[in-house]
Amino acid sequence: MNKRFAQRTHTEMKDVLMDPNAPTLNEHYYMIRGDNEDRNITVWESGTVGDEYVKTYGHYHRGDGDETYWILFGRGIALLQKRAVEGETPLSDSIEEFTVTHINQGDMLFVPPRFGHCLVNTGPSFLVTADNNVAHAQEGPASAPVENDYEPIKEMRGFAYYVIQHNGEPTLVKNSRYKNIQHEDLGGLPVVEL
């Protein structure tokens, strides 16, 4: 088994989907972890899970690490969110800042420290990125490096908004598990209630 390659299956993604029982494809995306000098590569399938576009599981970084993505092929949407803090404890259900960023081939996306991030493929073909997440240099499986914190995303069943295909266009649906969002930039996307 190659520790540098991993895929996220539908079964593994069910914890963060708007509708985990919707019909879909078996694999959502694939990851190749670089070594200390290389970049990581991620490839998303195109399509939807019910109405929700294929996306990554999403995670926060443990500590103050940042991350840069280079969009090599395709187009999509990046969801970035920073948790509100009570004392020194981040709150999973309260977001200080939420941002939607459109990403296209040739773009670079910077993820600041303490921002959770999830990338969504809204295009008709693969979405392919390279990133400089150094988690590949540490222990843990390629699909879930120990430096990445997936639990808050799992606890909330995804990010503060889901990205769905509505009338043929990317549209947002609020995740009702979040109690509040202090500041949000929705990138011009409409919001619908289902």
From TrEMBL:
InterPro entries: G6P_isomerase_prok (IPR010551), RmlC-like_jellyroll (IPR014710), RmlC_Cupin_sf (IPR011051). GO terms for biological process: gluconeogenesis; glycolytic process. The keyword Acetylation does not apply. Residues 31-169 form the Glucose-6-phosphate isomerase prokaryote domain. Keywords: Gluconeogenesis, Glycolysis. SUPFAM superfamilies: RmlC-like cupins (SSF51182). Pfam families: GPI. One of its GO terms (molecular function) is glucose-6-phosphate isomerase activity. Pathway: Carbohydrate degradation; glycolysis; D-glyceraldehyde 3-phosphate and glycerone phosphate from D-glucose: step 2/4. Belongs to the archaeal-type GPI family. This is glucose-6-phosphate isomerase.
